[in-house]
Protein backbone atom coordinates (compact mmCIF):
# COMPACT_ATOMS: atom_id res chain seq x y z
CA UNK A 1 0.00 0.00 0.00
CA UNK A 2 1.14 3.56 -0.68
CA UNK A 3 0.55 4.38 2.98
CA UNK A 4 3.59 2.29 3.90
CA UNK A 5 5.82 4.94 2.27
CA UNK A 6 4.01 7.90 3.86
CA UNK A 7 7.00 9.03 5.94
CA UNK A 8 8.95 9.79 2.76
CA UNK A 9 6.18 10.94 0.42
CA UNK A 10 7.00 14.01 -1.62
CA UNK A 11 4.33 16.58 -2.33
CA UNK A 12 4.57 19.41 -4.86
CA UNK A 13 2.16 22.37 -4.67
CA UNK A 14 1.60 24.46 -7.80
CA UNK A 15 -0.38 27.65 -7.12
CA UNK A 16 0.12 31.41 -7.06
CA UNK A 17 -0.10 31.23 -3.25
CA UNK A 18 1.56 27.84 -2.84
CA UNK A 19 3.51 29.06 0.19
CA UNK A 20 0.29 29.36 2.18
CA UNK A 21 -0.67 25.76 1.43
CA UNK A 22 2.89 24.66 2.23
CA UNK A 23 2.76 26.29 5.66
CA UNK A 24 -0.53 24.65 6.62
CA UNK A 25 0.30 21.23 5.21
CA UNK A 26 3.72 21.23 6.91
CA UNK A 27 2.06 21.92 10.26
CA UNK A 28 -0.30 18.97 9.80
CA UNK A 29 2.11 16.57 8.11
CA UNK A 30 5.72 17.23 9.19
CA UNK A 31 6.77 13.88 7.72
CA UNK A 32 6.01 14.99 4.14
CA UNK A 33 8.66 16.42 1.82
CA UNK A 34 7.11 19.60 0.40
CA UNK A 35 8.10 21.72 -2.59
CA UNK A 36 6.28 24.62 -4.24
CA UNK A 37 6.03 26.66 -7.41
CA UNK A 38 3.87 29.62 -8.35
CA UNK A 39 1.60 28.03 -10.95
CA UNK A 40 1.65 28.53 -14.73
CA UNK A 41 4.57 26.11 -14.57
CA UNK A 42 6.40 24.40 -17.41
CA UNK A 43 8.87 21.73 -16.37
CA UNK A 44 10.77 21.51 -13.14
CA UNK A 45 12.59 18.82 -11.19
CA UNK A 46 10.17 19.46 -8.32
CA UNK A 47 7.53 17.64 -10.29
CA UNK A 48 9.25 14.32 -9.56
CA UNK A 49 6.80 13.88 -6.71
CA UNK A 50 4.36 11.35 -5.33
CA UNK A 51 1.52 13.81 -4.81
CA UNK A 52 0.69 16.89 -6.87
CA UNK A 53 -1.59 19.66 -5.59
CA UNK A 54 -2.55 22.44 -7.99
CA UNK A 55 -4.84 24.11 -10.49
CA UNK A 56 -5.18 22.38 -13.87
CA UNK A 57 -4.80 25.55 -15.99
CA UNK A 58 -1.35 26.12 -14.46
CA UNK A 59 -0.02 22.74 -15.61
CA UNK A 60 0.92 21.26 -18.96
CA UNK A 61 1.34 17.91 -20.74
CA UNK A 62 5.10 17.71 -20.15
CA UNK A 63 4.64 17.62 -16.38
CA UNK A 64 2.59 14.44 -16.60
CA UNK A 65 4.74 12.86 -19.28
CA UNK A 66 7.93 13.37 -17.24
CA UNK A 67 6.69 12.49 -13.79
CA UNK A 68 5.91 8.79 -13.59
CA UNK A 69 6.01 8.73 -9.78
CA UNK A 70 2.61 10.37 -9.35
CA UNK A 71 0.32 8.41 -7.07
CA UNK A 72 -2.36 11.01 -6.26
CA UNK A 73 -3.40 14.45 -7.52
CA UNK A 74 -5.46 16.95 -5.55
CA UNK A 75 -6.93 19.62 -7.81
CA UNK A 76 -7.42 23.00 -6.17
CA UNK A 77 -10.47 23.82 -8.29
CA UNK A 78 -13.90 22.29 -8.78
CA UNK A 79 -13.05 21.31 -12.33
CA UNK A 80 -10.19 18.94 -13.14
CA UNK A 81 -9.62 20.16 -16.71
CA UNK A 82 -5.89 20.25 -17.32
CA UNK A 83 -5.35 17.32 -14.95
CA UNK A 84 -7.68 14.36 -15.50
CA UNK A 85 -7.66 14.86 -19.27
CA UNK A 86 -3.86 14.85 -19.67
CA UNK A 87 -2.79 12.02 -22.01
CA UNK A 88 0.40 11.45 -20.02
CA UNK A 89 -1.43 10.75 -16.75
CA UNK A 90 -1.99 7.10 -15.90
CA UNK A 91 -5.72 6.48 -15.52
CA UNK A 92 -5.00 4.50 -12.35
CA UNK A 93 -3.80 7.65 -10.55
CA UNK A 94 -6.67 8.97 -8.38
CA UNK A 95 -7.67 12.60 -8.85
CA UNK A 96 -9.80 14.60 -6.40
CA UNK A 97 -11.41 18.02 -6.76
CA UNK A 98 -12.55 20.86 -4.52
CA UNK A 99 -16.20 20.30 -5.40
CA UNK A 100 -18.66 21.95 -3.03
CA UNK A 101 -16.53 24.65 -1.38
CA UNK A 102 -17.17 27.55 -3.80
CA UNK A 103 -20.83 28.24 -3.04
CA UNK A 104 -20.40 31.40 -0.91
CA UNK A 105 -18.07 33.36 -3.19
CA UNK A 106 -19.68 32.29 -6.46
CA UNK A 107 -23.10 33.24 -5.12
CA UNK A 108 -21.82 36.64 -4.07
CA UNK A 109 -20.38 37.38 -7.51
CA UNK A 110 -23.68 36.38 -9.12
CA UNK A 111 -25.54 38.77 -6.84
CA UNK A 112 -23.00 41.51 -7.41
CA UNK A 113 -23.60 41.47 -11.17
CA UNK A 114 -27.37 41.00 -10.92
CA UNK A 115 -27.64 43.97 -8.57
CA UNK A 116 -25.24 45.95 -10.73
CA UNK A 117 -27.46 45.42 -13.76
CA UNK A 118 -30.62 46.17 -11.80
CA UNK A 119 -29.25 49.41 -10.40
CA UNK A 120 -27.26 50.32 -13.54
CA UNK A 121 -24.26 50.65 -11.27
CA UNK A 122 -21.75 51.29 -14.09
CA UNK A 123 -23.74 54.41 -14.98
CA UNK A 124 -23.79 55.45 -11.32
CA UNK A 125 -20.00 55.26 -11.19
CA UNK A 126 -19.70 57.18 -14.44
CA UNK A 127 -22.03 59.89 -13.14
CA UNK A 128 -19.99 60.17 -9.97
CA UNK A 129 -16.82 60.59 -12.04
CA UNK A 130 -18.56 63.34 -14.04
CA UNK A 131 -20.06 65.03 -10.94
CA UNK A 132 -23.52 64.37 -12.34
CA UNK A 133 -26.63 63.86 -10.19
CA UNK A 134 -29.17 61.66 -11.97
CA UNK A 135 -31.94 59.47 -10.58
CA UNK A 136 -33.92 56.62 -12.15
CA UNK A 137 -36.17 53.77 -11.07
CA UNK A 138 -33.98 50.67 -10.56
CA UNK A 139 -35.14 47.10 -10.98
CA UNK A 140 -35.31 44.86 -7.92
CA UNK A 141 -34.62 41.17 -7.40
CA UNK A 142 -37.83 40.85 -5.39
CA UNK A 143 -40.25 38.39 -7.07
CA UNK A 144 -37.98 37.94 -10.09
CA UNK A 145 -37.34 34.50 -11.58
CA UNK A 146 -33.81 33.15 -11.69
CA UNK A 147 -32.77 29.99 -13.50
CA UNK A 148 -29.79 27.94 -12.33
CA UNK A 149 -28.41 25.88 -15.21
CA UNK A 150 -26.64 22.97 -13.55
CA UNK A 151 -27.96 21.88 -10.18
CA UNK A 152 -25.10 20.80 -7.93
CA UNK A 153 -23.72 21.98 -4.60
CA UNK A 154 -23.02 25.50 -5.85
CA UNK A 155 -26.56 25.83 -7.17
CA UNK A 156 -27.91 24.65 -3.83
CA UNK A 157 -25.88 27.32 -2.02
CA UNK A 158 -27.02 29.94 -4.50
CA UNK A 159 -30.69 28.93 -4.32
CA UNK A 160 -30.73 29.48 -0.56
CA UNK A 161 -29.43 33.01 -1.05
CA UNK A 162 -31.89 33.71 -3.86
CA UNK A 163 -34.78 32.84 -1.56
CA UNK A 164 -33.50 35.45 0.90
CA UNK A 165 -34.26 38.00 -1.85
CA UNK A 166 -37.77 36.52 -2.34
CA UNK A 167 -36.92 35.28 -5.81
CA UNK A 168 -38.50 32.37 -7.63
CA UNK A 169 -35.77 29.79 -8.25
CA UNK A 170 -35.86 27.45 -11.23
CA UNK A 171 -33.37 24.59 -11.49
CA UNK A 172 -32.44 23.35 -14.94
CA UNK A 173 -30.85 19.93 -14.93
CA UNK A 174 -30.64 16.60 -16.67
CA UNK A 175 -32.21 14.95 -13.63
CA UNK A 176 -35.53 16.16 -12.23
CA UNK A 177 -35.56 15.92 -8.45
CA UNK A 178 -36.54 17.90 -5.38
CA UNK A 179 -33.86 20.31 -4.18
CA UNK A 180 -34.09 22.59 -1.14
CA UNK A 181 -34.94 26.21 -2.02
CA UNK A 182 -35.61 25.42 -5.68
CA UNK A 183 -39.24 26.06 -6.53
CA UNK A 184 -39.36 24.27 -9.87
CA UNK A 185 -37.15 21.89 -11.83
CA UNK A 186 -36.96 21.90 -15.63
CA UNK A 187 -35.24 19.54 -18.05
CA UNK A 188 -32.08 20.81 -19.74
CA UNK A 189 -32.84 18.59 -22.75
CA UNK A 190 -35.35 21.26 -23.76
CA UNK A 191 -33.27 24.24 -22.74
CA UNK A 192 -34.81 26.78 -25.12
CA UNK A 193 -38.23 25.99 -23.67
CA UNK A 194 -36.91 26.29 -20.11
CA UNK A 195 -35.56 29.85 -20.31
CA UNK A 196 -38.45 31.82 -21.79
CA UNK A 197 -39.79 33.32 -18.56
CA UNK A 198 -36.49 33.82 -16.72
CA UNK A 199 -35.31 37.24 -15.61
CA UNK A 200 -31.80 35.89 -14.94
CA UNK A 201 -30.06 32.77 -16.23
CA UNK A 202 -27.00 31.76 -14.21
CA UNK A 203 -24.79 29.20 -15.93
CA UNK A 204 -23.22 26.67 -13.56
CA UNK A 205 -22.89 23.70 -15.93
CA UNK A 206 -19.40 22.14 -16.16
CA UNK A 207 -17.36 22.21 -19.37
CA UNK A 208 -17.78 18.67 -20.67
CA UNK A 209 -18.25 17.67 -24.30
CA UNK A 210 -22.04 17.59 -24.12
CA UNK A 211 -22.09 21.15 -22.73
CA UNK A 212 -19.97 22.75 -25.44
CA UNK A 213 -21.87 25.80 -26.76
CA UNK A 214 -24.87 24.73 -24.68
CA UNK A 215 -25.96 28.37 -24.60
CA UNK A 216 -26.35 29.04 -28.31
CA UNK A 217 -28.31 31.38 -30.58
CA UNK A 218 -31.49 29.33 -30.17
CA UNK A 219 -31.37 29.51 -26.38
CA UNK A 220 -30.49 33.21 -26.32
CA UNK A 221 -33.27 33.91 -28.81
CA UNK A 222 -35.76 32.21 -26.50
CA UNK A 223 -34.90 34.50 -23.56
CA UNK A 224 -36.81 37.66 -22.75
CA UNK A 225 -35.35 40.90 -24.08
CA UNK A 226 -35.32 42.12 -20.48
CA UNK A 227 -33.39 39.08 -19.21
CA UNK A 228 -29.76 38.87 -18.10
CA UNK A 229 -27.28 36.02 -18.46
CA UNK A 230 -24.47 35.27 -15.99
CA UNK A 231 -21.74 32.73 -16.76
CA UNK A 232 -19.57 31.65 -13.84
CA UNK A 233 -18.87 28.10 -15.04
CA UNK A 234 -16.56 27.77 -18.06
CA UNK A 235 -16.17 29.75 -21.26
CA UNK A 236 -16.90 26.91 -23.66
CA UNK A 237 -20.43 26.44 -22.33
CA UNK A 238 -21.49 29.58 -24.23
CA UNK A 239 -21.21 30.15 -27.99
CA UNK A 240 -19.04 33.28 -28.20
CA UNK A 241 -20.45 34.57 -31.48
CA UNK A 242 -24.02 33.95 -30.32
CA UNK A 243 -23.69 35.93 -27.08
CA UNK A 244 -21.89 38.81 -28.80
CA UNK A 245 -24.61 39.00 -31.45
CA UNK A 246 -27.40 38.77 -28.87
CA UNK A 247 -25.95 41.69 -26.91
CA UNK A 248 -25.21 43.83 -29.95
CA UNK A 249 -28.76 43.33 -31.25
CA UNK A 250 -30.39 43.80 -27.85
CA UNK A 251 -31.89 40.30 -27.85
CA UNK A 252 -31.19 40.17 -24.11
CA UNK A 253 -30.71 43.07 -21.70
CA UNK A 254 -27.18 42.21 -20.62
CA UNK A 255 -24.66 39.56 -19.66
CA UNK A 256 -21.90 39.09 -17.12
CA UNK A 257 -19.06 36.76 -18.09
CA UNK A 258 -16.45 35.60 -15.60
CA UNK A 259 -15.01 32.88 -17.85
CA UNK A 260 -13.86 32.66 -21.45
CA UNK A 261 -12.54 30.07 -23.87
CA UNK A 262 -9.20 31.90 -23.95
CA UNK A 263 -7.82 33.27 -20.70
CA UNK A 264 -6.46 35.76 -19.94
CA UNK A 265 -8.84 37.52 -22.32
CA UNK A 266 -6.67 38.99 -25.12
CA UNK A 267 -6.55 42.76 -25.43
CA UNK A 268 -7.94 42.52 -28.97
CA UNK A 269 -10.87 40.31 -27.98
CA UNK A 270 -14.20 41.60 -29.34
CA UNK A 271 -15.73 41.05 -25.90
CA UNK A 272 -14.10 44.20 -24.50
CA UNK A 273 -16.30 46.41 -26.67
CA UNK A 274 -19.61 44.57 -26.47
CA UNK A 275 -22.48 46.69 -25.08
CA UNK A 276 -24.25 45.76 -21.85
CA UNK A 277 -21.54 43.27 -20.90
CA UNK A 278 -19.79 43.04 -17.54
CA UNK A 279 -16.43 41.24 -17.59
CA UNK A 280 -14.74 39.81 -14.50
CA UNK A 281 -11.37 38.00 -14.67
CA UNK A 282 -12.34 34.43 -13.71
CA UNK A 283 -12.50 35.24 -10.02
CA UNK A 284 -16.00 34.04 -9.11
CA UNK A 285 -14.59 31.11 -7.17
CA UNK A 286 -11.80 33.07 -5.49
CA UNK A 287 -11.87 34.46 -1.97
CA UNK A 288 -9.49 35.66 0.72
CA UNK A 289 -10.37 32.48 2.67
CA UNK A 290 -9.80 30.05 -0.23
CA UNK A 291 -6.88 28.27 1.43
CA UNK A 292 -8.88 27.84 4.64
CA UNK A 293 -11.82 26.51 2.62
CA UNK A 294 -9.63 24.07 0.73
CA UNK A 295 -7.55 22.70 3.62
CA UNK A 296 -10.23 20.42 5.17
CA UNK A 297 -10.53 18.56 1.85
CA UNK A 298 -6.75 18.41 1.42
CA UNK A 299 -6.29 17.09 4.96
CA UNK A 300 -8.95 14.39 4.60
CA UNK A 301 -7.51 13.16 1.33
CA UNK A 302 -3.87 13.23 2.43
CA UNK A 303 -4.69 11.28 5.58
CA UNK A 304 -6.71 8.74 3.60
CA UNK A 305 -3.94 8.36 1.04
CA UNK A 306 -1.19 8.01 3.62
CA UNK A 307 -3.12 5.40 5.61
CA UNK A 308 -4.03 3.44 2.49
CA UNK A 309 -7.77 3.97 3.09
CA UNK A 310 -8.62 5.35 -0.34
CA UNK A 311 -12.33 4.71 0.24
CA UNK A 312 -12.31 7.60 2.74
CA UNK A 313 -11.21 10.16 0.17
CA UNK A 314 -13.70 12.87 -0.80
CA UNK A 315 -14.44 14.36 -4.20
CA UNK A 316 -12.71 11.60 -6.17
CA UNK A 317 -13.28 12.09 -9.89
CA UNK A 318 -14.50 9.26 -12.08
CA UNK A 319 -12.04 8.83 -14.95
Features:
Rossmann fold, 9 helices, elongated, alpha/beta, 29% helix, 2 domains, disordered N terminus
Kindly name the structural category: alpha/beta
Report low-confidence residues grouped into runs of 5 or more: 1-6
In the CATH hierarchy, the architecture of the largest domain is 3-Layer(aba) Sandwich
Task: Indicate the mean pLDDT.
Answer: 94
Query: Biggest sheet, open or closed, and with what strands and sense?
Result: 7 strands, parallel
Describe the structure.
The protein is α/β, with parallel strands linked by helices. It has two domains: 2-100 and 287-312, Rossmann fold (3-Layer(aba) Sandwich); 103-279, Rossmann fold (3-Layer(aba) Sandwich), CATH 3.40.50.720. The chain has helices spanning 18-28, 61-66, 103-119, 121-129, 153-164, 191-194, 217-222, 240-248, 290-307, and strands at residues 10-14, 33-37, 51-54, 72-75, 95-96, 145-149, 168-173, 184-187, 200-203, 228-231, 254-257, 277-279. The strands form two sheets. Strands 8-7-6-9-10-11-12 form a seven-stranded parallel β-sheet, with helices on one face. The protein has a five-stranded parallel β-sheet with strand order 2-1-3-4-5, with helices on one face. Strand 6, helix 5 (153-164) and strand 7 form a beta-alpha-beta unit. Helix 1 crosses helix 9 and helix 3 (103-119) crosses helix 5. The chain is elongated. The two termini are 21 Å apart. The model is unreliable at 1-6 (pLDDT under 50).
Amino acid sequence: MWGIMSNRLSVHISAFNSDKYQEKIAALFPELILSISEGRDTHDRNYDCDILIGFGPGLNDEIFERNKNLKFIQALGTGVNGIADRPGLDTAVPVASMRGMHGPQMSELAFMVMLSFNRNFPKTLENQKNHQWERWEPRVLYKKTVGLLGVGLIAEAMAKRCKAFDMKVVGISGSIREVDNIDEMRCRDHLADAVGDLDYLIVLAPMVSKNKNLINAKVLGAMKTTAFLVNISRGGVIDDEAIITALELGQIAGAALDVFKQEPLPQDSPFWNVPNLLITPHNAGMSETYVEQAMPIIEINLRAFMSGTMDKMVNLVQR
